[in-house]
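Lab channel / #folding
Pinned by the channel admin:
"Please post every new chain as: sequence first, then the structure tokens as a reply. Keep commentary short and put observations after the output so the thread stays searchable."

First post following the new format, from NK:
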Amino acid sequence: MNTYEIKSLLVSTGDFIILLGQIRIIVSAIRRWNLNELSIRTKTTNSRRN
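Reply from TO:
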């Protein structure tokens, strides 16, 4: 392996790590949004019962 191949490998690895980080952020945001939706729904159903 020459230095160019090593550099390109490092760059692709860095891009992959960044992509993974972005996916994790998106997934956590979706989960949080789903939890908020669920809590809002349960609150509305509880208020209707009372």
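NK: The first helix runs from residue 3 to 49.
TO: also worth noting, DSSP finds one helix and no strands in the chain.
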